[in-house]
Design brief:
The complex is a heterodimer. Chain A is mainly α. Chain A has helices spanning about 5-20, 30-40, 45-60, 65-105, 110-135, 140-155, 160-175. The radius of gyration of chain A is 18 Å and the shape is globular. Chain B folds into three domains: about 1-85, no CATH class; about 90-115; about 125-170. Chain B has helices at about 10-20, 25-40, 45-85, 90-120, 125-140, 145-165. Chain B is extended, with a radius of gyration of 20 Å. Classes of the chains: A mainly alpha, B mainly alpha. At the A-B interface, α1, α2, α3, α4 and α5 of A face α2, α3, α4, α5 and α6 of B.
């Protein structure tokens, strides 16, 4: 079957593959999700992507569940389940086997080198996520200001992030953005 | 536990596993976390599976995986349904726009906090890799897989070289 004609298969394939490339966690994979969901397949509009990101940050649970929402938009409940499992099962299986392997042998040096090499890479990916999400959500000066203030507050204080999200929501409701 | 973690489960996972139930010592937890951080994919999912499997093998891993992802996935699907029905309501649109502005700000602060150690160490190699990946993905919008296939070997090779030079 041609995967282009069946969005659920495309979901399984793209997120399954992405899961193995998501170095540094869910937030590093945002640009790739945006490229696939908005630019390549037109599953979501730019605006919907920003909304889906907001919902996934607001709700409890791992942030990776943004894929559940993308999957739901594409293919309903089935799409949501397929996207979630495709994103989480391959890396979980990998973690299971690698952890078992490392327990049996002591290759203590390699993980530390690989980790040191991957840290700047994953920060670069997250910075790209920040740029793409800023371009999709900050369409007005008010919006950009809210983002800037939230960034400064979160960097300089130990405020619970949830308060900043709620404050953003209230400002949005008040029509500042 | 999966439902407690607004904006990330890790803090709660640590509190529950290390402090309340004493299933792992702090060192074991850090070791497991470091391992899961260098593997691809969502760290917390990896951590949960490794943790579960240390106890009861594969069954433990699967149980932990289901426990972590089951409840929030259900909530997400419900939110997805609500969004589909009410996503075009004007006031909700505005609230979500505000929340996503705040969320982007949070993300920027995380990036800032993670970059500062590199700047302090004057890690020019790391900062160059960071900038190159940022430009390739964020500005040129190249596919992730290709960028990583080039960037990971290059970055590892440079790290090995630098370490050899530092400790001859």
């Amino acid at each position: 079957m041609n995967p282009e004609s069946n969005p659920i298969l495309t979901l399984a394939w793209t997120f399954g593959l992405m899961s193995l490339f998501a170095v540094g966690g869910a937030n590093s994979a945002i640009p790739e999700m945006h490229r696939i969901a908005v630019d390549a397949h037109h599953w979501l509009s730019d605006k919907q992507f920003a909304d889906v990101f907001a919902i996934s940050q607001l709700s409890p649970g791992p942030n990776v569940l943004i894929v559940t929402l993308i999957g739901y938009t594409v293919g309903g409940i089935g799409g949501a389940l397929v996207a979630t499992l495709a994103m989480c099962v391959p890396t979980a299986a990998l973690a299971y086997f690698v952890s078992g392997f490392l327990k049996r042998s002591s290759h203590a040096r390699w993980p530390s080198i690989v980790q040191a090499a991957l840290v700047p890479l994953s920060i670069g990916l997250m910075a790209a996520s920040g740029l793409i999400l800023a371009l999709t959500s900050d369409r007005t000066w008010g919006a950009a200001l809210v983002t800037a203030v939230a960034a400064v507050l979160a960097s300089l204080t130990r405020l619970n992030p949830l308060w900043l999200l709620l404050a953003g929501g209230i400002l949005g409701f008040a029509g500042v953005i | 536990m999966s439902l407690a973690g607004f904006g990330g489960v890790l803090v709660f996972a640590r509190r529950g596993i290390v402090e309340q139930h004493r299933w792992m010592t702090a060192e074991e937890f850090n070791e497991t976390f470091a391992l899961c951080h260098f593997l691809p994919g969502p760290n917390i999912v990896n951590l949960t599976v490794v943790f579960g499997s240390r106890f009861r093998g594969m069954a433990g891993g699967i149980a932990a995986f289901t426990g972590l992802l089951g409840p929030p996935t259900v909530i997400m699907v419900i939110l997805g349904m609500l969004y589909r029905h009410f996503g075009e309501v004007e006031s909700l649109r505005r609230i979500l726009a505000g929340v996503s502005c705040g969320a982007v700000g949070l993300l920027i602060s995380v990036i800032f906090r993670m970059t500062m150690p590199l700047v302090k160490k004057r890690d020019l190699v790391g900062l160059t890799v960071l900038a190159a990946v940022f430009v390739a993905i964020g500005i040129a919008r190249l596919p992730l897989a290709w960028v990583l296939l080039v960037a990971i070997p290059v970055s590892i090779a440079i790290t090995v070289l630098v370490r050899r030079r530092a400790a001859p």
